[in-house]
Specification:
The chain is α/β, with parallel strands linked by helices. 51% of the residues lie in helices and 11% in strands. It has 20 helices and 13 strands. Helix 2 crosses helix 3 and helix 6 crosses helix 7. It is globular. Bound molecules: arginine. Arginine (ARG) binds next to helix 11. Arginine binds next to helix 11.
Length: 568
């Protein structure tokens, strides 16, 4: 359990003993050092309800609460706050290297994280980066906390576009070089489709053949999908994203379940025919002029839709995977789609009330000028090209700062810094807003950026190198003396709490903000407190503190899918 929750529960228990009713303790990290390390804000509201004096109630709670193992002292403050000062022993034991940096939660659950999920007809472009890296950060954090994480890459591999693509592919024969660039391939197929009516007809027939299971068409299709998935995997590899081929659960994999979905909806009286299509109408969804908005699940020609597949996916995730929680990461434009799917799934009993279905939307990626992110020529920027540019820019920077390092090492640092910068710039913003892509900002060594955090990590490593320190052989405790040292130690303790918040709200930027504050506090400590030249136990304590900071930075960045280097 994290420190804040532990204190919160104990104060809440004391509050309930003193008042005879349950009320929240509202424990938060203290806003200023003079208010201690944590503060409880819940006493005032409890006193108000019971019409007693809040300051007296706070004093009573302090007398009652059992916090000796955590806090050195508690004080009342202002109109009824309680300030909590952690004890030196608690700090020393909690930060001991023998303690795991992150503890597993007591109540792990099975959680499906549905992310990345590109449409395989085209090559991944910048629009896919947000879902991919935000989702991956969540998967990593949840897993680290001990939950059972099932990654689902719900790729689009079905539908009319594929008829055109496989027809074009069948004409180009066994020559797979044409598929080296999916974007070019798509464009060529589309041009042909628009210009040649016979080709268009063959394409439409191919869709029918594909859905009907024609072996030859299926084999062209499989070949195309395979090549497209290899493109995706190559990008995941470059981005350090933990999705593997086994996590792919394509839309087509639900095909056989779609008639069942329709049948189940029909049996429950949820289906209505509207213009020949099968629809579910729900009270809560009204469109223009207050007219009911349908969720279409089967077209008049018998074809199924994106929504039908998602309903089948909910069933599968509950029945087969036993998911207790499902997180979906797509852009905000799909918000209504997911609201409708979740509502229909609940109504139809595909998801039981205890199963948490959550769409976590994000805004668009915009250029520095606030317009949709495009190449200089105005086209869609391929993800691979974006990553190339990141590495090139980082290489120039690193070479400027460190002309003496061997080129190989500069290239490796540039890879880690460049890719890290792109990912971090995105992850560090509240995902619900649009995001402005800005090379200079993300590659800066100052401010809330990946290079700044990676640099802070190397600062610690350079202390160890200069002092010739073997951390494993250090024996002693972390016993902070100076204010900047203590603030740093208390900040380290909050790592667990922040990870739990990220997991609960699906906001990776909480972790970024935390790591940035940790790194900044480390820099302050490093200015104020000599490490290598400090005497005896102080030196050991500070070295151990440095080691915990480095571990926390490395682990924290790792959970965002970002690497570190030993020097830069
Ligand atoms: N393939 C979809 C797209 O590119 C995203 C899929 C998201 N996941 C889902 N279960 N619908 O927009």
């Amino acid at each position: 359990m994290n420190v804040r929750t532990a204190i919160d529960q104990r104060i809440a228990a004391a509050l309930s003993t003193c008042t005879g009713v349950d009320s929240p303790a509202l424990v938060q990290p203290a806003r200023k050092p003079e208010f201690g390390d944590y503060q409880a804000n819940g006493v005032m509201a409890a006193a108000k309800r019971l019409k007693t004096n809040p300051v007296e109630l706070a004093a009573q709670v302090i007398d009652t609460v059992a916090l000796d193992d955590i806090a050195a002292r508690l004080e009342t403050a202002g109109p009824g706050f309680i300030n909590i000062f952690l004890s030196a022993e608690f700090l020393a034991t909690s930060l001991d290297r023998k303690q795991p940096l992150v503890i597993q939660v007591d109540d792990p659950y099975t959680v499906v994280v549905d992310y990345s999920s590109p449409n395989l007809a085209k090559e991944m472009h910048v629009g896919h980066i947000r879902s991919t890296i935000i989702g991956d950060a969540l998967a990593l954090v949840l897993e680290r906390l001990g939950h059972k994480v099932i990654r689902k890459n719900h790729v689009g591999d079905w539908g009319t576009q594929f008829g055109m693509l496989i027809t074009y592919l069948s004409e180009t024969g066994e020559n797979s070089e044409v598929l080296e660039d999916l974007e070019d391939f798509y464009r060529a197929a589309k041009t042909r489709f628009d210009a040649d009516a016979a080709f268009a007809t063959r394409s439409r027939l191919a869709v029918v053949g594909l859905q009907g299971g024609d072996p030859e068409i299926r084999s062209h299709w499989r070949r195309f999908i395979d090549i497209s998935l290899n493109h995706c995997q190559a990008l995941y590899g470059r981005l350090g994203v933990s999705l593997s081929r086994e996590d792919v659960h394509a839309e087509s994999a639900y095909n056989d379940d779609l008639p069942t979905v329709i049948e189940l909806l029909r049996k429950q009286g949820l289906l209505e025919t509207s213009d020949g299509a099968q629809c579910v109408f729900l009270e809560e969804f009204k469109g223009k002029n207050d007219l009911p908005l349908p969720v279409i699940v089967q077209k008049s020609d018998g074809g199924y839709l994106y929504a039908t597949t998602d309903l089948a996916a909910v069933r599968h995730r509950r029945n087969e995977l036993k998911a207790q929680r499902v997180l979906y990461f797509t852009d905000a434009r799909q918000a209504l789609h997911f609201k409708q799917i979740f509502a229909v799934a609940r109504k139809a009993g595909f998801a039981d009330p205890a199963m948490s279905l959550e769409h976590h939307p994000f805004g668009n990626m915009l250029g520095k000028d606030g317009k949709p992110f495009k190449t200089r020529e105005g086209g869609v920027l391929k993800l691979a090209e974006l990553l190339d540019e990141a590495e090139t820019r980082a290489f120039e920077l690193v070479s400027e700062k460190n002309p003496d390092l061997a080129e190989d090492e500069r290239r490796e640092i540039a890879r880690v810094v460049g890719i890290g910068a792109v990912k971090y710039a995105d992850l560090s913003k509240n995902r619900t807003s649009d995001y402005h892509f800005d090379w200079d900002q993300m590659l800066a060594f100052e401010g809330n950026t990946a290079p700044y955090l990676q640099y802070a990590y190397t600062r610690v490593q350079s202390v160890f190198r200069r002092g010739n320190i073997d951390v494993d052989s250090l024996t002693g405790e972390i016993t902070p003396q100076e204010p900047d040292e203590r603030t740093l130690a208390v900040k380290l303790l909050r790592f667990q709490e922040v990870l739990e918040q990220v997991a609960a709200d699906a906001y990776p930027h909480y972790l970024c903000t935390y790591l940035y504050e940790l790194a900044s506090q480390f820099m302050r400590f490093y200015e104020a407190c000599p490490v290598l030249s400090a005497p005896g136990e102080t030196r050991v304590s500070r070295l151990l503190l440095c080691e915990r900071v480095a571990e926390t930075l490395k682990n924290g960045l790792g959970l965002l899918g970002i690497e570190t280097v030993e020097r830069m």
